From TrEMBL:
It comes from the Eukaryota. Residues 83-146 form the Anoctamin dimerisation domain. It comes from Atlantisia rogersi (Inaccessible Island rail). The gene is Ano9. GO terms for cellular component: plasma membrane. This is Anoctamin.
Amino acid sequence: QDKEKWDFVLVSNIHEVGSREEIKRKKFLDELSKKGFTIKKIEDKQLYYGVRAPKEIFQKYQWLLRNPDSRPQNPDNHQDVPVTTRIRIVNFILQNTTTPDLEKLPDLIKKKVFKTAFPLHEKEGVWENLDKNWARWGDIFHSQPIEDIRCYFGEKVALYFAWLGWYTCLLAIAALAGLVVFVAGITVFSSGQVSKEICEASTTIMCPLCDQKCPFWLLSDTCTYAKITHMIDNEGTVLFAMFMAIWATVFLELWKRKRATVVTNWDLYRWDEEEEELALELINNLQHEPQKYQHSYLRSTIVLLMVLVMIAVLIGIAHALVIYRVVAMALFTQSKVEFLREQANTIAVMTGAVLHYITIVIMTKVNKQVALFLCDLEKPRTFSHHENNFTVKFFTFQFFTHFSSLIYIAFFLGRINGHPGNYVRIAGKWRLEECHPSGCITDLFIQMGIIMLLKQTISNVVEYLTPWISHKVHKKPRCPKKRSMMVGEEEEVEDPCKNQWLSNFQLREVNVFSLFDEFLEMVIQYSFTTIFVAAFPLAPLLAFLNNLFEIRLDAIKMLQLSRRMVPRKANDIGIWLQVLEAIGTLAVIGNGLVIAITSDFIPMQVYKYMYSPCAMENSTSVDCSTGYINHSLSVFRIQDFEPHTKVPKMLPDFVTDKIKEYRDYRNADDYSYTAQFWHIFAARLAFLILFEHVALCIKLIAAWYVPDVPQSVKNTFLNRKHSNLRREL
């Protein structure tokens, strides 16, 4: 006979006889016995209680839901519901069984009566199949056995992997397009007219980049930086940003089709979560009254205000990072080390990015607690409502944590810092940062590159190594112990359950957030690959490479290094779909703003069509952007410096020259904005409105063009209705 199967294992410390914990534990186990549960106790360093539910519970479930899960098998066999359904029902009953003291299992775990409760991994059948064909590094390029994942981990996990696999497939297209744009930038950039002009501008003297110890400098010094900038900032980027807006829409539309096909095969397309929940409540307790829907405007207002306060705090942290960069820049430029002085700007940006990554790690923990607290305030009716509310809040906080610093660099850096002789200062002392003379987009590129690389490499390494190391540590010392037992207590070793329960207990604990964390990581990554992709065309490629490993990493983690997750039934990825759609719209706005405001694309076009040699004399032999750099510089008289600025020593060749330059469109006499500035400003706004409307129209057309539900799914339901009605007649 097959060795006996246990649905769940409860673990508890060994308490003294008659202690409060022991009495509470006994009461809880008595309640389970009353419901017909079989309980088996094994003693080791802890107490282990295996519980098995009676057949009647599953028969009630099948009867109530006339469930597709009921397989026409031998009625005496208690395996006639799938294992995942079985674990789910038992978990629900365990979590909702109330002792005479009105305590449930979660309360008892808080009071240290029980340590934990978990379902067991079954190392046979489906598990072996998954271990062989899924949780292996060698399977990186193979498709995933979604059906097996569903049979072992339940629908929710299977849908996560189906979504992740689909997302990774479509990322390959975006990664290829991004790579083409990037390579085109590399091949075209060094020959670009603008970078050529910067490299030849050996007589253009620029204003110092800081107040003390900063020299005047030549524009030609920034030759390399200019080349890098024009590698990212070119016409190809505009097309790529447009392409990514369409890609995001098509990806979601195709996912809706894929999901419809998958859940129709599982017979869950019209599944009703509320009905399922009410059925489980009634199986657990026939006297149960459903909790009613409630809504309080007062509570919603309080929650909304607290969310706004939290967002303000996160934006404040982004300001702190800005101040750090300003102060760091000031300190580095006064340093004794020549390398620090020369590379002050780049070092400040890079250390700022690392610091930003550290704030992300810390604030993630804070955000989770705040989001949980706000959810409890709202008192959601069911677990899935709770999960949806939590998801939206936590994602919003995470979004601001990740992106507020990038938003500053993209849209405010170098636009609010005044001009020579009248700089905007922090605390009246430190000058705000300026963009690099060749444009701000490179700062954004560096920041995104560092955050994406750090986030993906470090979090994946930590995510995998932590459970892997603890797994290895726990695995070692068990063998000698077993031998010493054999000498003393022969009958203990006979119990086949003991090793299985112990080894499961030593795996990494999983909780309700385990799958949520995986989803969140991917959705934040999706934001990076779409929102500022105009400044970082390599984002889809980095994401694609990361995801190839991410799928196997999650598989190994779930199958071998963690306890078995409690399977959850689901027929879609829940509120994440709306979150992804919102990101798609933000991506259009974000990329439109990056091209209109951050990049030099618009000023160049305005120059080409209004001020360039081509516009003046219709000559086709000259490059139309000739003279752009000179045109974008303004003139400054040295005597107009603020009194406390130490005017640096002149370069010997230019002693007579009293005029220096800076990047802006201002008049030479009173430093007011020139007509060109307003021309460019109007062009930026016009482009932004045009780009967003065109991109949103294309998104809508793409959404209409690709139907959400495939015809085959619609026809399946049509035939089913038809045959049911015919049978009735």
